[in-house]
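User: Second chain of the day. Same drill as before.
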Amino acid sequence: MLKNYFKIAWRNLWKNRTTSFINIVGLSVGMAAAVLIMLWVQNEVNFDNYHKDSERIYRLTTNVPEGGWIWDSTPLLLADAAKKEIPDIEEAAKLRIGNFPAFNINGNLFYEKKCVYVDSGWFNLFNYKFIEGNKTSFNQNPFSIILTATAAKKYFNNRSAVGATIRIDSINYQVLGVVADAPSNSSFQYNAYIPIQALLINKELRENDEQWQNTNYITFIKLATKSNAVLTAQKLTGILEKNGQEGANISLLPLHDMHFETDLENSSFVQGNQRTVYIFSVVAFLLLLIACINYVNLATAKSSLRAKEVGIRKLVGAKRSTLFYQFIVEYVLISIISLVATLSIIELCLPIFNELTDKQFTLPFLTVKLWQIIGITLLAALLLNSIYPAVLLSSFNPLNVFRGINVLKIKDGYLRKGLVVLQFTVSVILITSTFIIYKQMDFIQQSNPGYNRSQVISFYLPHTISQEERERLIPTLKQALLQQSAIEGVTAANQPLVMIGSKCSGCADWDGRDPIFQPKLAQLSTDEDFLKTMQPQMQKGRWFQKEMPTDKHNYIINETAVKELNIKQPIIGQRFSFHGETGQIIGVVKDFKYRNLRERSGALIIFNNSLWYNFLLVRIAPKNITEGIAAIEDTWKKHFADTPIEYNFLDDSFNELYKDDQQAARLILVFAVIAVLISCLGLFGLAMFTAERRTKEIGIRKVLGANVQSVVTLLSKDFLLLVGIATLIAAPIAWYFMNQWLQGFAYRIPVQWWVFAIAGVLALAIALLTISFQAIRAAVANPVESLKNE
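Assistant: Same format as last time:
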């Protein structure tokens, strides 16, 4: 019986080759897109879950309610104290993200940006697969290092890395292990691990870190089964209080929640966007839905043409269940073909998808994860595609079919029109969303930050040089660079200008301040050349000047600081104290954007303290990029021959802040194109079916004098009306969701009506182009051919 079902199903598919092709292509593309999206979604929602007992692992968070501070870091001594005093803690581990060390391997210099310091508990708490070496030898030797497989290959090619020596900051470290690369859904994307003991050899740093008020280490703990996380957090807070840290408290964040954390002052790990995950989950379902709509539409449209087949089958004794299973098998056959096509599309598109998402997904056909995603997708398609058409086709009687009424007593034409409207509603929403996202990204790119970041290169000074040496070298480096014709300006500062993360509270005082008012203040230490190099605009007063030694104790504030701190008039000359240094306000700079545009830049205090400087900003003259970079590299080599230079263009650093948003924009564009493609395939099939059913009508109209234009209009107007209705429905939905998305930006574009008009016109144009082929073909056909049998 089953074999017979498949034979009949194959004959029907082959007989209706065009319809079958439309169904298979639409379903395959929709399923492939849905599977790729769900791979990404599953990767995001399962971040860090691969570790053993991950549900019992927590990261400690330090909260200081008085200043509104939330940090993912804790004191150095807390982990060891907690493990000794709290029995519920089975394991504890800490990590410190330090400066980027320079690796010297046989005279070749490399900056390793993904190098961290970990303690002996790290490889006990977290899962790492050792390819070579082991964690025991690493824990016993403070001057050891563990590399990932990728790093080992980079530094030692195909040679065994274990036993090799890497010189870091004048100290030789021995490679004692190689671990497999972390999966793409790991927060710990590091290439090299060094024991914390090696860092604490520095007596000054150790003494600083052993003070309980300094929170420089990220601490993780694993609790015993059925332990109370809230109670453990209270005990940890008690340890802080016992060691003089009153006013701060500890909370525990589950490891699997760390990726979507949003309330930290600054995060040490790459953060995901939960809203984006929800959006793409919905997009995956919608793409699958509009692919399935094609099958339902074409199946119901063809239902009347199969009336005789069903009538004859029932006449010779076929049961309704037999017919139901027959039509289910037809869908199963389409699904099998579509599955093969889907896997082929996924394999073909996966490298492009990896590039778009900046991930490294692979296609291991035998993994449970992939088959789970495909299985769920197929099941969803089965429910959407097969049940209704099978019930419809197996239950009607010929008389009702000729009247156009289905089992639900609804005109099936209305159902098809409703599904077409649904398809194009989704398409128009995606088109509109693409326009708005790209406009917001363009707004970010083109917005005036309040300073000139074009052709500015920034680079850190080596962290190995002392503070005194840094103070001595900075004027020398600046002078050497300014002698080059390709260099227009050089200034020193304490942090990158595109993302000033350094803030303080309770660190400032001024006349008229309420004693309980302790605002968060962003802080920028820079010199007298900042104005010329970065070109911010002064609102009043002046910038720092070399001829004015007192400017070492004076301050410049931004316009927001004037408002938020309620500085009395006249502002210039007002007393201002910052970090214990008292001077006066000598200038007010116009607000410039020094944070991610998702956040509004707040009060900023600019001061001139050379002890804070650790990197340079260099403005290169127009059309002299090559010469400017060469001048920077030559100057660097003269002073830091044993250290590689690592520089960035300020524009690139700025763009990096919006990397995730730009990826989302590209993905939405791709999915919008796919949605439109699938919708147009369905529209093409319906237009073809409509033209076939109205062949004689068109023939008669042409005999009576109708021209091609009137016939095309006749066949197109109903479909274009449906697309127009879809646009009207899509506009408010797209407006709502895009408005919600834009709320995530402190600086954003307004959502204007013409965006929806453009999306609607584009959808209408695409629909008209799709329909026109069949309409014109029917209009130019010889009416004699359609009427000769009448």
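The longest helix spans residues 320-357.

User: Great, on to the next one.
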